[in-house]
Amino acid sequence: MTLPILDSKLIQQSLEQYGYARISRVLTPEQCQHISQSYGQASLFRSRIVMQRYNFGAGEYQYFAYPLPAPIDQLRYWGYAALSPIANAWADALQLDRHFPEQLDDFLQRCHQHGQVRPTPLLLRYQAGDYNCLHQDLYGEHVFPLQMAIMLSQPGTDFQGGEFALTEQRPRMQSRIEVVPLAQGDAVIFPVQYRPARGSRGYHRVQMRHGVSRIHSGQRYMLGIIFHDAN
Ligand SMILES: O=C(O)CCC(=O)C(=O)O
Ligand SMILES: [Fe+2]
């Protein structure tokens, strides 16, 4: 699978300006369909979550099992390589005593040594009426601060509604929202928990959450790539 070259500097600028970065046409429609269709292949997954049961929203998702299918694994390595310099720049800006290794394997080894051994890449499926409440994907003490999601369905054709949304909660201010327009195959990169924002006295944290508005009709598949593993 050939993936586009990522420009870390441009991604970082967009994240700091808007709270997200969009990468167009990461996957072809055929690759998107292939991944969506794998939803029915139970052996690829370690667990299935029905969102209603946890009040997460409505819809369902499954976490892939190790070994990850090759395209999912490749996307995770590709994303990590471009995002680890940003993760380190952010840790420095926020004066956190934290360093993210250059290689995903080294970061995952750290997760695994601390009991976070279960893979987190996931495939989500929504039908008419479903939605995903604003949330943060934290799965333990070790958190890689950025994550990625890829739109597998064709908005407007396969489904209506179902917008990917982010909120930013700045200290002592009301929340700001961003809706990210995504075409089939596009990726969105966004902060897991918070991002740095420059203020009058250096950098401070802006808390972030993401979610999906109600799907009005049709079916919507999304691939989520989270870099830390879960405990
Ligand atoms: O379905 C979506 O667009 C949201 C996916 C999500 O929450 C995630 O990838 O962590
Ligand atoms: Fe999420």
UniProtKB/TrEMBL annotation:
Domain named Fe2OG dioxygenase: residues: 117-230
Gene Ontology MF terms: metal ion binding; oxidoreductase activity
InterPro entries: DUF2086, Oxoglu/Fe-dep_dioxygenase_dom
Superkingdom of origin: Bacteria
Keywords tagged on the record: Iron, Metal-binding, Oxidoreductase
Transmembrane segments: none
Pfam family, one: Oxygenase-NA
Similarity-based family: Belongs to the iron/ascorbate-dependent oxidoreductase family.
Stated name of the protein: Fe2OG dioxygenase domain-containing protein
Species, as recorded: Gynuella sunshinyii YC6258
